[in-house]
């Protein structure tokens, strides 16, 4: 079981502004680079190859969507050029802004792999069908991602996103079935 990056930013609706489509964070604009309006973007997405000229980008701040005109690799990031912005002064307004794409534009994943946003708000039940809670967050750790599940009591349960514990993910039913071990639920301790 594997999760792909591209966490949602902001609230669980995934939209930066009301009435916008569900959005995924793909990077962060850091600063202007050179004299032609390029900006250095820190990459958040597992699929930077999908950021090609013509892609529509959304930023944290209110405003119209932006079109990506050019991009090229630079160290661990990307240098991006946005349509209509050709000077360092023009792009300075975008400094430290998160960059989003529409969730519908994401590439399909292989069987058994999920985007973080697909799992947020899913109901979690144990193997006997007893409700545990709802996925509210996903922690990225070195070994495996961890589901943060909020119980009805308000307490949180942490369950590693590995086959040993996560038995089934059913996106259509909006449910996850997990195997618990003694001590996982704080009420047992």
Question: Please, could you describe this protein's structure?
Answer:
With 189 residues, the protein is mostly beta strands. It has two domains: 2-105, Beta Barrel (Elongation Factor Tu (Ef-tu), domain 3); 121-188, PRC-barrel domain (SH3 type barrels, Roll). The chain is 4% helix and 42% strand. It has a six-stranded antiparallel beta barrel. A hairpin with a 4-residue loop joins strand 13 (166-170) and strand 14. The longest helix is centred in the middle third of the chain and has 4 residues, at 88-91. The radius of gyration is 19 Å and the shape is elongated. Mean pLDDT is 84; it is low at 5-20.
Descriptive labels:
14 strands, SH3 type barrels, 2 helices, Elongation Factor Tu (Ef-tu), domain 3, 6-stranded mixed β-sheet, 189 residues, mainly beta, 6-stranded antiparallel β-barrel, elongated, 4% helix
